[in-house]
């Protein structure tokens, strides 16, 4: 009988440990860290683009002096992006993430208009500095896209991990982790452009 009373707590402890190993605590923590790391890559890619813009604007200024409105729009869009304070908390605040996305979308639009302006200036398109900056900007836009896709994948894995059983129990009792917002298409991208011939 005495042996049974000593084995019973030990069995209970072993059962509890085996249940805890399947509770998902570590998985959810790892998934949240993956989201944070992916977000860091998104920020890094956007920062690279923001760093390229002043050089691009300066090169274009030399050739397209009377396109000041377009150049000013790019500069203002970049300034707006820079004025949004982005911290780790942006991942937990859908409204802040939406503002961040809108500012980045406005900057992308301004850069697109700048590239249309460049088409009017063959000498500018042939300028080696401009060509190098344009290639770097194109590469950066690709990096941004890849970083956003990887972020969205990490968000999906994280959101699934906090909502599925038994992780959902662990989350509701211990962690209280909230869903993360994924990047969505820009508002302008939701409507297909009309092409007329």
How does CATH name the architecture? Up-down Bundle
The oligomeric status of these chains comes to: single chain
Distance between the termini: 93 Å
- The counted number of beta strands is 0
Low-pLDDT residue spans: 189-193
Overall description:
- The protein is mostly helical.
- The protein has one domain: LemA-like domain (de novo design (two linked rop proteins)), CATH 1.20.1440.20.
- Helices cover 76% and strands 0% of the residues.
- It contains seven helices and no strands.
- Helix 2 runs antiparallel to helix 3, helix 2 runs antiparallel to helix 6 and helix 3 runs antiparallel to helix 4.
- It is rod-shaped.
Task: Write a concise synopsis of the structure shown.
The chain has 197 residues and is an all-alpha fold. It has helices at residues 2-21, 25-63, 68-83, 94-118, 122-126, 128-163, 167-175. The chain has one domain (25-167, 175-185): de novo design (two linked rop proteins).
List the helices and strands and how they pair.
Elements: H1 2-21, H2 25-63, H3 68-83, H4 94-118, H5 122-126, H6 128-163, H7 167-175
List keywords for this structure.
7 helices, 197 residues, de novo design (two linked rop proteins)
